[in-house]
């Protein structure tokens, strides 16, 4: 059964996913791949792809013990359509609540299953993973919103 911490995490995550969806509403297939400063800022699509990778790696591989492949470097150059970005968002919305629940009830399934750039990732506590996932999600959602504002000329 979900406790107050898990309920709060799910609420924050769903609000944040809603902000990503709203940003995607303002993009078309061109602007979702556009960067305001080529070579220095990620596109909306790349950021959504990166978030999907973060959730798959920290939640799927580390917490759930799954074997989800990740090419972190490729996430930042990924391109696609708004529909593809929405599919990634749907996948994140589906996966994250399960990973939060597993982290808070069962802990870490595979400490060595992560490909993070953090040196301390393998020794992360379940609580750290939950907070880290929410921090990454909210931080990069802010990046999505700023990029959207610049490329969609809002």
How many separate domains?
Answer: 1
- Radius of gyration, in Å, reads 15 Å
Q: Helices and strands, in N-to-C order? A: HHHHH
Poorly predicted sequence stretches spanning 5 or more consecutive residues:
none
Q: Give the % helix.
A: 55-70%
Beta-strand segment tally: 0
Number of helices: 5
Morphology call:
globular
Give the end-to-end Cα distance, rounded to a whole number of Å: 43 Å
Record keyword descriptors for this entry.
mainly alpha
Tell me the layout of helices and strands.
Layout: H1 4-25, H2 44-63, H3 72-75, H4 82-105, H5 126-151
Helix pairs in contact: 1-4, 1-5, 2-4, 2-5
Model description:
- The protein has 154 residues and is mostly helical.
- The chain has one domain (4-151): dinb family like domain (Four Helix Bundle (Hemerythrin (Met), subunit A), Up-down Bundle).
- It is built from 5 helices and no strands.
- Helix 1 (4-25) runs antiparallel to helix 4 (82-105) and helix 2 (44-63) packs antiparallel against helix 5.
- It starts with a helix and ends with a helix.
């Amino acid at each position: 059964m979900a406790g107050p911490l898990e309920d709060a995490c799910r609420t924050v995550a769903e609000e944040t996913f809603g902000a990503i969806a709203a940003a995607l509403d303002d993009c078309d297939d061109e602007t979702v791949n556009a960067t305001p400063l080529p070579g220095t800022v990620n596109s909306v699509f790349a950021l959504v792809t990166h978030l999907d990778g973060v959730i798959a790696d920290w939640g799927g591989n580390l917490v759930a013990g799954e074997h989800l492949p990740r090419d972190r470097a490729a996430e930042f150059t990924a391109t696609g359509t708004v529909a593809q970005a929405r599919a990634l968002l749907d996948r994140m919305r589906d996966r994250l609540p399960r990973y939060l629940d597993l982290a808070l009830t069962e802990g870490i399934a595979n400490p060595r299953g992560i490909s993070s750039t953090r040196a301390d990732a393998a020794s992360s506590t379940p609580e750290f993973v939950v907070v880290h996932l929410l921090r990454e999600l909210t931080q990069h959602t802010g990046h999505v919103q700023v990029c959207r504002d610049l490329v969609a000329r809002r």
